[in-house]
Amino acid sequence: DADVTQTPRNRITKTGKRIMLECSQTKGHDRMYWYRQDPGLGLRLIYYSFDVKDINKGEISDGYSVSRQAQAKFSLSLESAIPNQTALYFCATSGTGTSGYTGELFFGEGSRLTVL
Amino acid sequence: RKEVEQDPGPFNVPEGATVAFNCTYSNSASQSFFWYRQDCRKEPKLLMSVYSSGNEDGRFTAQLNRASQYISLLIRDSKLSDSATYLCVVNPPSGNTPLVFGKGTRLSVIA
Q1: For B44, which of A36, A54, B36, B82 could close a Cys bridge (C-beta 3.0–4.6 Å)?
Q2: Strands, E assignment, chain B
Q3: What pLDDT tens digit does each residue of chain B (111 aa) get?
Q4: What angle do CA B68, B73, B76 make, to 5 degrees?
Q5: Closest chain B C-alpha to A17 CA, distance in angstroms
Q6: What SS3 class is residue A47?
Q7: Among all residues of chain A, which has the CA nearest to that of B8?
Q8: Longest Cα–Cα distance in chain B
Q9: A71-110 pLDDT, tens digit each
Q10: Which residues in chain B have their CB less than 8 angstroms from residue A101's CB?
Q11: Would you tell me which residues 27-66 of chain B have a C-beta closer than 8 angstroms to some C-beta of chain A?
Q12: What does pLDDT average to over chain A?
């Protein structure tokens, strides 16, 4: 089983619909992230959370919201989806090793969202 | 200057060739650096960490030049399976802000 699991893996929806992408991890990491990836634009950070009570905006948070329900769960919501939110979305986690924060990110397999 | 810059490529090289990518970063206080590999439509995965003067792992060598603020990735004896996008990633100095990703360099190794 994957250490970082995203659901759904693929979703097609219509403009104006509410969509939730879920992420769960079994790595015991405290830090979780949501990215979107578009061709030619690379990975862009939407939101991140360093602990259960911590939520921070990334560079492209408009139109998105998140919830950190537990250390292992971090969900991303699109309250009213629009076509330019069509993208590949990745959840990632990171944590500390024996010598401190490692800086390594572990990604889920991605959620491909299409908004018509 | 962008935080992390990479040549997007594509780099098209024959099997067996040696290829090198560079990546520049803007924050001179950055402490740690990484190369990630991303296959088409897949998630990025850590390829190598780059600390102090760099390191080597088989056919892959990563180097850091602090004076010029760039890191490099050298791939020797390229294989078809090396075809992927290579992402340069920088850890900001505070450690309490997320990693900064470059947009990636695409490599195609051709037979």
Answers
A1: B36
A2: 4-6, 11-14, 19-25, 32-38, 45-50, 55-57, 60-65, 70-75, 84-91, 100-101, 105-110
A3: 678 999 999 999 999 999 999 999 999 988 889 999 999 989 999 999 987 778 899 999 999 999 999 999 999 999 999 999 999 999 887 767 888 999 999 999 999
A4: 135
A5: 25
A6: strand
A7: A40
A8: 44
A9: 999 999 999 999 999 999 999 999 875 556 667 899 999 9
A10: 95
A11: 32, 34, 36, 41-46, 49
A12: 92
Tell me the three state secondary structure of residue A71: coil
In angstroms, what CA-CA distances link A26 with A23, A52, A72, B33? 10, 15, 7, 25
Contacts of B8 in chain A (CB under 8 A): 40
